[in-house]
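B., you asked whether I could sanity-check this one before it goes into the benchmark set. Here's the sequence:
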Amino acid sequence: MTVKISRSAVRKLKGSDEPLTAERASEIMASDARSVAQNELIEIDEGLLSTLKEVFGDTGLIEDEAKLRVLITQRKIIYRNFIKSGHASLAMGNALLSLDASLTEEQRERLKGSSDKILPFGDTVASMLRSVARFVQAGKVPEDQLPASYSAAYVLTSMTDTELEAARSNGLIRPEVGRPRLLKFRKEFRERANASEVERGGVIDIEKLVSQRARLNSRRRKISSEYFQLSREVREISQVLAKLQKRAG
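And here's what the prediction gave me:
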């Protein structure tokens, strides 16, 4: 077996009076590997380091350079592929819009009603993907700043220009930002805006709120319908598998 060791390890081997047994050579090479690993610089953003200290501070992970290196390296891989998934979602949304443009109104309605039979997802997801694609095409947010998660990007489509600008100022329009964080920001922003309006003696637009509630209720019904449909399909598949397993037994 051929191995590579550093010059310092070679000097240890030459300068030692102890007989060079296989066990002794293994010890020196193991020590050498640890030394090389410890001397390698770990590139880490200060903000990330602060977060890692907050999460893992009392676990010993920050002091364990090997584990820290694995965490940072694998995190980079995860983020790189996560961002790629965002581009894929946008591509699907653009494809859906192109498909819609080629169909008649009746055909589009048929597609929406049977999305899950033709596409790998139902109409709820398809509608979200379309909305995100239109959002980007309208120039609201550049593609490279769009949240990688389509569900997070969809939250942006429901924001006003003022809310978008505030989100941008708070560093929330970027690929790695998730849906919960954007929802929390939007909720808090609107609560502050409503409170300010009341303090100024302004009038809350009731008609607008009623319209928004109707849209949310409609969306909730769609999601609920899709959930029950998926549950039924899962039960049917489980029943088929159970029968097959019974026959095999």
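One thing to flag: The first helix runs from residue 7 to 15. Otherwise nothing jumped out at me.
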